[in-house]
């Protein structure tokens, strides 16, 4: 590695950032990946972590393990606090990182559409700490209900509301219904399934409304079959301690509110002085560069990407992230060779979403699957996509345990001890 | 289950409490197990959790899953705050639980021998949250060192001190040395193994001094071979931000201090008004009952058990806990039948401890093993003792990955999100 090599800093080790780092492997640059976590999250499995089917380590991989085979890529754990576009440097809570080329792949966070108070009244499902917190909260509610003798108090504790019927909310609601029906009613002998209410509030007519018909209607039926109350065309006006208040004036009681109503770009986007598009994402050129700074690329959920052939910006999906990350790396290579960066062309490989065990919808161009065929497709695609033999074996073991024997082995309310942490962190 | 059955409350779902609950399965009583966690911890694996070899769910099992096959046993998640011995009721942070018979199996916590300030300056390894916190701290130190360019600052961050050369401290120190040598030097390309110092401070001449010779001397050599600095006959006078100060005036610099110097009975013991023995444990009669309250039993780490044949109280070991828990259950059965409770006779099945991969000492009466033979014995015994096919498969997968390929798959700095937790907890 020559010190004279141009420096590339990649902000974020999600799908987009990792894809960019790997694609820069053969480009004569020195790459630094910065992330606030030391792991890469396989986000399609987060709802399985939140419903006690998978442990954290089955949905996450040490970033350094992924990167160490790439000789020209190093990793730094830090929170990025800003970017000095003129000085060409990334500011972190550790130290400044100068760059010649920058790839912004900082991902997304929960969007509250101006109602920031919802963050304190709901649980998210957008990253691994949130998924673990949600798992702990669900199990703690059941434990609290075991102590409650008053039926009204039990009903309150056992009421769950999921806001947003996109893939995240739908997959979670289906898996939660099964966690309770299949496993927790055995764990809690006094628990009657009819005491538990799970409501999915969706603004459209059906959940999974981004899928073509008949998939949304089929997902809707599958959710109802599992005992999920689907509230269609339900717009949430307010979230408070008692649950949801909808815009039509009705209320949905819920001790636990899961917010899956939308994602926006990470808050880093707000302070960069760059033009923002929908979902507070950084607006990019067709070549994924930002206006006025050809050395800066934005990709994945952090970028609003408009392709020449599509009027709508691309959705916030893993495949868009992976492909755009790769394209940014390719365009950095082009710039280094004095060539013209190429516009990004998205190749839609299809989308799928599960509704619990044995049911998924899959939209793969002309092929549209529902039910068990969709579920089989989901299992195969996701086992293939997850990295590493160990993780595959781990995930398969848990799926056999969970889907065949309806056992959720990870139903533990656990996290690191927090006391005295502050003082130890002072030593860092 | 008749309501007229006598009520047994078991405080604690560790080895002793679970053994008691299982043994009460065929006794005509109604049993309630109370614990502050919803899981049972397989404590021999905690050092493997702390060194990123096993995930939390491989060292812990949902208690409800263990108990649900037992028709007369129910579980309640709560923190026990006291016992009203006269009113025969257990007080918790939830509600009062009346009992006819009580089994106190509340286990142990770190002992600081009057130096309570050490709790805030060190990390423990006595339960699962502590093990996860320690894992996160170790990995965070390495990440911090990756940012440090000053050699003195790097050396400080990469210095670890373990206080106490009993099985916990010895096993952890050996596994930590291997985590760094085998895995983290590959993850951190700039890291030189010689920059990392791991010191084990032990008050006796050798670590594992409770084992018969030549096992302690062999363990000592094995630790040194792995690069652990063993400080023999080292008495710790003080722990501060810079590390350890020993009673002989020398210092051991350490950014991370792991406290494995001793265990005492859970603090519940302090407020019961019962006679305490060594390690603040509840003194019990040979039949495991407490003075003046024949309906109250204390077992496991929570009890100071003296057997008629031994002068010394029994050590705080899993086997003592399991056997004494079973005996308490048997004696409750005896009391119900109007028979005389039997004195506890401890059957020593041997003890073992690992020093990293490929080395363990095992003391099984006439058979004393060290090295690879000891390690093989340790693997076989612990795979046999851990409950459930899934956990066995999980542990074996990780051991193959860890011991054969020197990969520590769980090297993630992760825990549930803590923000907004307070408010949600208010809803419980």
Structure overview:
Two copies of one chain form a homodimer. In chain A, strands 5-2-1-9-21-20 form a six-stranded mixed beta sheet. In chain A, strands 13-12-11-17 form a four-stranded parallel beta sheet. Among the domains of chain A are: 7-36 and 78-110 and 264-336, 3-Layer(bba) Sandwich (FAD/NAD(P)-binding domain); 116-261, FAD/NAD(P)-binding domain, CATH 3.50.50.100. Chain A has helices at 15-23, 46-50, 63-67, 128-147, 151-157, 167-187, 215-225, 318-336, 371-385, 389-404, 421-426, and strands at residues 7-11, 30-35, 39-41, 60-62, 73-77, 80-84, 89-92, 97-98, 101-104, 108-110, 159-163, 197-201, 228-231, 236-240, 243-246, 251-253, 256-259, 263-265, 282-283, 289-290, 293-298, 303-304, 351-354, 360-364, 367-369. The two termini of chain A are 30 Å apart. Helices cover 31% and strands 23% of the residues of chain A. With 428 residues, the first copy, chain A, is α/β, with parallel strands linked by helices. Mean pLDDT of chain A is 93; it is low at 419-428. In chain A, helix 4 (128-147) packs antiparallel against helix 5. Chains A and B meet through strand 5, helix 4, helix 10 and helix 11 of A and strand 5, helix 4, helix 10 and helix 11 of B.
> What quaternary form is this?
homodimer
Number of helices of chain A: 11
Which architecture of the domain at 116-261 in chain A per CATH?
Answer: 3-Layer(bba) Sandwich
The fraction of residues in strands of chain A falls at: 15-25%
Q: What is the residue-averaged pLDDT of chain A?
A: 93
Gap between N and C termini of chain A, in Å? 30 Å
Q: Kindly report the CATH topology of the domain at 116-261 in chain A.
A: FAD/NAD(P)-binding domain
Largest sheet of chain A: 6 strands, mixed
Radius of gyration of chain A: 22 Å
Number of strands of chain A: 25
Question: Reading side by side through the largest sheet of chain A, how are the strands ordered?
Answer: 5-2-1-9-21-20
Give the helix proportion of chain A (percent range): 25-40%
Structural class of chain A: alpha/beta
- Main interface: chain pair and counts: A-B, 72 and 71 residues
Shape of chain A: globular
Supply the CATH class of the domain at 116-261 in chain A.
Alpha Beta
* Low-confidence region ranges of chain A: 419-428
């Amino acid at each position: 590695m020559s010190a004279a090599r141009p420096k590339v800093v990649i902000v974020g080790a999600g799908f987009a950032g990792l894809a960019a780092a790997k694609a820069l492997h053969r480009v004569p640059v020195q790459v630094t990946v910065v992330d606030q976590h030391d792991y890469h999250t396989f986000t399609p499995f987060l709802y399985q972590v939140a419903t006690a089917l998978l442990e954290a380590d089955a949905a996450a991989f040490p970033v350094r393990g992924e990167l160490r085979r790439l000789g020209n890529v190093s990793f730094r754990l830090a929170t990025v606090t800003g970017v000095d576009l003129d000085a060409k440097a990334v500011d972190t809570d550790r130290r400044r990182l100068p760059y010649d080329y920058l790839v912004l792949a900082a991902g997304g966070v929960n969007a509250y559409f101006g109602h920031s108070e919802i963050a304190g009244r709901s649980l998210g499902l957008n990253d691994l700490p949130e998924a673990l917190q949600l798992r702990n909260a669900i199990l703690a509610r059941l434990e609290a209900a075991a102590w409650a003798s008053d039926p009204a108090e039990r009903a309150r504790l056992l009421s769950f509301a999921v806001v947003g019927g996109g893939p995240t909310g739908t997959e979670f609601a289906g898996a939660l219904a099964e966690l309770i029906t299949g496993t927790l009613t055995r764990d809690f002998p006094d628990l009657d399934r009819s005491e538990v209410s799970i409501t999915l509030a969706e603004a459209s007519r059906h959940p999974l409304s981004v899928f073509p018909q008949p998939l949304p209607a089929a997902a809707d039926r599958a959710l109802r079959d599992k005992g999920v109350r689907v509230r269609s065309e339900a717009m949430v006006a307010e979230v408070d301690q008692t649950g949801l208040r909808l815009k039509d004036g009705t209320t949905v009681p819920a001790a636990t509110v899961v917010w899956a109503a939308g994602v926006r770009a990470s808050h880093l986007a707000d302070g960069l002085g760059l033009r923002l598009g929908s979902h507070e994402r950084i607006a990019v050129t067709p070549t994924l560069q930002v206006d006025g700074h050809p050395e800066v690329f934005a990709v994945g959920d952090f970028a609003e990407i408009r392709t020449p052939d599509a009027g709508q910006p691309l959705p916030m999906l893993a495949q868009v992230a992976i492909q755009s990350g790769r394209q940014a790396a390719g365009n950095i290579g082009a710039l280094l060779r004095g060539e013209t960066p190429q516009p990004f062309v998205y190749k839609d490989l299809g989308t799928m979403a599960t509704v619990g065990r044995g049911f998924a919808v899959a939209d793969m161009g002309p092929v549209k699957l529902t039910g068990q065929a969709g579920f089989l497709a989901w299992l195969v695609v996701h086992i293939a996509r997850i990295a590493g033999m160990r993780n595959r074996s781990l995930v398969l073991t848990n799926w056999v345990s969970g889907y065949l024997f309806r056992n959720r082995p990870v139903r533990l309310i656990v996290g690191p001890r927090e006391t005295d942490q502050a003082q130890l962190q002072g030593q860092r």
